[in-house]
Amino acid sequence: MLANSVITNYILLEGKHYKYSSITYQNTVPLVPVSPNGAPTPATAKAPTIDIAQILSKAKRFSVLIRLLKTTQLINQLNSQLLTSGSGGLTIFSPPDSAFSKLKAGFLNSLNDKQKVELLQFHTLSSFVSISNFDTLTNPVQTQAGDDAQRLQLNVTTYGGNQVSMATGVVNATITSTVYLDNKLAIYEVDKVLLPLDVVLPKPKAPAPSPFKGESPKTKSYTEESGDGNKNSDDDGAVTVNASAGSVNLINNVNLMFVVGLVLMGGAML
To answer: What's the rounded mean pLDDT across residues 26-49?
Structure first.
């Protein structure tokens, strides 16, 4: 904002005083923004952004890896992880185009989207690891692909502090150079694509369900029928025994009456 003021001046010309006026302007707007209470407003610092794809692109030998990161949209997730507060950083193993060219023809096209994501995550650690700290890791090293110690195993070996090799059960690879390094992101070039067993080996088939669960109805029915048959046989036997006992009693009674009759008859004759 500009404010003006009028100033009257006098000059002496040829022995006479002449009066003239001049106008001055003053800028009343402060150059530094101030808060309502008059204190300067602190400037808000923008957090630095890191684009992993851009870093790899500058190296000019990771075009296949960049394409995979973009088509699977995993690049957005990785960049977001770096900006998340409390994040432990990332370590990325980057195979160059020459490493992908050594794969079996059509291998990448044979993978579905889920397998491609798993392959890329197998090249990523959820923490920042400097080249001199790989010897502090515990094998098998867990990657972002998962914690399956058999099908997703990654074993790291260090030599002399700065030489690092990795074994997946399928390939043995070596870190050949450092592509990028700061306090949160480490990108290392590896000479081979890290193929996990989970991508190469077929998935184990689930065991076929048993055709008979528990006792079959036929067997149960047979058991019940057998039980009923035994019961009926027992009942029939009981009836038979009872009938036989009745017959015996009847015979005994007849015999007793016959004997009594003979006795009576003999007494009468006497």
So the answer is: 59
Find the largest Cα–Cα distance for the chain. Answer: 210
With tokens 């050949």, the residue in question is 176
193: its two tokens: 């694509």
> Would you tell me how many other CB atoms lie within 10 Å of the CB of residue 62?
24
Could you report the per-residue pLDDT of 62-94, keeping only the tens digit for each?
999 999 999 999 999 999 999 887 788 999 999
Ordered alpha helix ranges (H), 92-216:
97-100, 107-110, 113-121, 197-200
Question: Which parts of the chain fold into alpha helices (H)?
Answer: 52-59, 63-71, 74-83, 97-100, 107-110, 113-121, 197-200, 217-269
For residues 40 and 20, what is the distance between their CA atoms, to the nearest angstrom? 40
Predicted pLDDT at 50 = 84
Q: What is the pTM of this model?
A: 0.61
Half-sphere exposure of 120 (CA within 13 A, CB side): 21
Single-letter amino acid, residue 253: N
Token pair belonging to 210:
């048993």
